[in-house]
Amino acid sequence: MNARSFFLVLTPFVASILLADGPADNLPDKVRPVPPPGLTISDQDRSELDSLVRALGLEIKATEDGLKSKPELLNLLPDVRIYHNAVRYALAYDEFYKTNQVKIAKRLLQQGMERAAQLKGGTAPWTTATGLVARGYVSKIDGSVQPYGLVIPASYQPNSPHRFRLDAWFHGRGETLTELDFINGRETSPGQFTPDNAFVLHLYGRYCNANKFAGEIDLLEALENVQKHYPIDDNRLIVRGFSMGGAACWQFAVHYAGLWAAAAPGAGFSETADFLKVFQQENVQPPWYEQKLWHWYDCTDYAANLFNCPTVAYSGEIDRQKQAADMMAKALAEEGIELTHLIGPQTAHRYHPETKNELDRRIDNIAAVGRDPIPRKVRFTTWTLRYNKMLWVTVDGLDQHWERARVNAEITDNQSVKVDTQNVSALTLSMPPGLCPLDTTAKPLVALDGQPIAAPGVLSDRSWTAHFRKTNGQWAVSEKREAGVELSKRHGLQGPIDDAFMDSFLMVVPTGTPLNEKVGAWTASEQAHAITHWRNQFRGEARVKKDIEITEEDIAAHNLILWGDPQSNVLLSKIANKLPIRWDSQGVHTGDAIFPVDRYVPVLVYPNPLNPERYVVLNSGFTFREYDYLNNARQIAKLPDWAIVDLSVPVSSRAPGGIANAGFFDEKWRLPRR
Asked: N or C: which end of the chain has fewer CB within 10 A?
């Protein structure tokens, strides 16, 4: 939510009164810092905390060395490291915001010491505890340790055959929600909702981004970590949140609708343009490609997916953020679906107690029934292969990215499936063992856009998988795509630039002489900006290596973020002539256009010619900047697959310079023909 909105006052851990919304946050030339400056702590407190942090760091190293032969215990070390990082970051970046946080920091460091000692002794009692438990995992994105909180029901017992419902909760906006503050909250407050006999997973979401980008992957990684350690029922997963967390809930509900038994978003925002106009009084006039990119996180564009996810929205009657559910109700009505929208009478930005009870009742009833993993009907819409799956339907290719694609699929009888598509070039129908309702003695007949196709048969374990591809308007059964066979946009390799930062990435810094002083200065400045702001906004420490130190293992494991130019960066020089936009000593070449090398720099994302299973990015971090930190609805991708930056225009809080040209590569990763 907006940085200065009132947050949910019923949750003590996140309660904070912020300044009222106003036009001050619409001034790109006067952007206040996020996170804000912290309080000054005494020299004595700083010295003591520094000593305790160093001591815990040494203890973690000793524990790690001592557990190398015990991987089951070594894998629990992130549960210790969350305490070390929480205080280390607060000290390093001056992120103490409350006078009691020094005392809290000392307590967290002591807990870290206790957990390390328990691990060295061969035990991990917090893994079998009930109540409030803070834990952590190592993110694939940047190797950082990320915290999460659990509310574990008293009925949980290790090795019990019972599988539990889990509710994932997304927190509201808090610009001072550091790791230290988050972990303390997760150990002192159960939060808004504690359903009987259910786990509650509290996401940190990598700070304050409405669970977008790395914050989005945080849910998937944290959930996977929880499922490794606890008996969670995959068919009784609920997503819910309020305010900024309500916005997060909307986007998870529509983008991953097939995973959840139910969704319960409260307040928040569900799209960008109207929300900023209504809530922020901002005149939004983005370039055409940014409007295209609204289709990434505008939940109204994916409303049809709630056909497969029971949803109960909540708003206060006099809350301006009721706008989010109203917009979703309108979008759902266009799909023939009426939104269940509970409204707290004469209530502002909080839950009304009686309406909250009704919300609980409805969600509990839905959770008791659980998700149907193989419904007879599936409705799916998407605009990008980043989101390509709904239950037993997977879209493998689009005719055109950032245009609406649809799939309506139905099991019509025990031998037939009907599928209608729009803007889809390849798809897969897949049902896991034991769940396929089709006849195992006959090949299923798939009517695909009216074209009858005999599909591969159902296997004896009652699993079924069939791949289809469209060529010249005709569908046919196809083999599953093999790695490296063709260069095309596909899930996890479809752009735009920001997508490269949703998987493992490595910053590659140049060691050579730049093409010219201006290019060298700009790339060095943007490189430093990207590394610093990754830490500030996504709470991780970016991996960084020199170009001359990059190994084959690095190329295989990471998306490579190449800084510099073809003369200064060894890796870039190796692939420069294999990119669709050429960059040499004469200039930047985009088809017939040439941009002079002393003024222009390309930024782009492309499958790495040295490993087409991973991205390469030229001279860009995530593409939203300081101005966008002030309102979560602004935190969206600002650049497409490629752009030409004009260095004669100063870097600002909104852009890395002037954008002379920008666009998307086509479905084969080529510059579109004019």
From this structure: C
Long-range contacts of 338-342 (CB under 8 A, 24+ apart): 339/311, 339/313, 340/311, 340/312, 340/313, 341/313, 341/314, 341/315, 342/312, 342/313, 342/314, 342/315
How far apart CA 619 and CA 617 sit, in angstroms, is 7
* 426-466 pLDDT tens trace: 999 999 999 999 999 999 999 999 999 999 999 999 999 99
Q: Tell me the C-alpha distance between 81 and 325, whole Å.
A: 39
pLDDT score, position 24: 87
Instruction: Please tell me whether residues 141 and 123 are part of one structural domain.
Output: no
- DSSP string spanning 185-229? HHTT---S---TTEEEEEE-TTSSSTT-THHHHHHHHHHHHHHHH
pLDDT tens-digit readout, 128-155: 999 999 999 999 999 999 999 999 999 9
99 and 57 housed in the same domain = yes
- 278 and 146 share one domain: yes
383, part of any domain: no
What number of other Cβ atoms are within 10 A of residue 336's Cβ?
A: 9
Specify the pLDDT at position 481: 63
Would you give the DSSP letter of residue 84?
H
| Closest to 643 in 3D by CA, of 402, 308, 287 | 287
Residues 415, 440 contacting (CB under 8 angstroms): no
Number of C-beta neighbours around residue 158 at 10 A: 10
> 303 lies in which domain range?
1-30+129-375
Reported as half-sphere exposure (CB side, CA atoms, 13 A), residue 214 has a value of 30
Flag whether 68 is in a domain.
yes
Overall number of domains in the chain: 4
Q: What is the mean pLDDT of residues 412-428?
A: 98
Mean pLDDT of 321-330: 98
DSSP helix, strand, coil percent of the chain (3-state; round to 5): 35, 25, 40
485 in any annotated domain: no
12 plus 66 within the same structural domain: no
Average pLDDT value for residue range 580-600: 95
Kindly state whether residues 247 and 364 are assigned to the same domain.
yes
Distances in Å between the Cα of 230 and the Cα atoms of 161, 258, 550 are: 11, 21, 38
Sequence-ordered list of residues with C-beta below 8 angstroms from that of 107, at least 6 positions apart, any chain: none
Place of tokens 């830490």: 535
